[in-house]
């Protein structure tokens, strides 16, 4: 068992390295949770897709303590961290690219929302279509998909896409200057070197949980897959440069 305080320390370090890529990460979290709260239920059922160590799930539950949050990820190490740090959350080990993943969630009613931050771009476009189609089967009519991520528009509006990248980079320069937090790879190298995580790191390798590249970084890829899955209204709810909160309403 991982120590609770040690897990919290590693997640705090995770959050700092994520902020190096997302200087307005907390603002995006806030906008996403605002949207869940605006559904009007004090006790929404929410699925966190690609939850990592539970950073979003924990913030959502802090704002809406009556919510039921199901946190889903395929990475044994990140789920191990989350379980040690946040015993109040329900973590489910599932690969969103594999058909039938929703059967592992143990849902007793349709979900009110599915949320995700900086995760779904790892999924290839064909797998993304399957994942959104399966997600639609467990969301209630009017339920939301809220996906915060860097989603580009260069295929449709190349000039705007270039400007979006510039706006994002200027924000990072103002926030950090030359003192950016450690990079994503450095965090992974550090935790893999900690003997306390040897077993989970080995399980991670066996599960093939490491990511390579960005498979679906275009806004059009996500919007198209959501339309095919039966989502009706699809649009950007919050944006800073190419960092956006994509919202889709289950038809």
UniProtKB/TrEMBL annotation:
GO molecular function, one term: methyltransferase activity
InterPro entries (UniProt xref): Methyltransf_25, SAM-dependent_MTases_sf
Domain Methyltransferase: 46-143
GO biological process: methylation
Entry keyword set: Methyltransferase, Transferase
Residue ranges of the TM segments: none
PANTHER family per UniProt: TRANS-ACONITATE 2-METHYLTRANSFERASE, TRANS-ACONITATE 2-METHYLTRANSFERASE-RELATED
Identification of the protein by name: Class I SAM-dependent methyltransferase
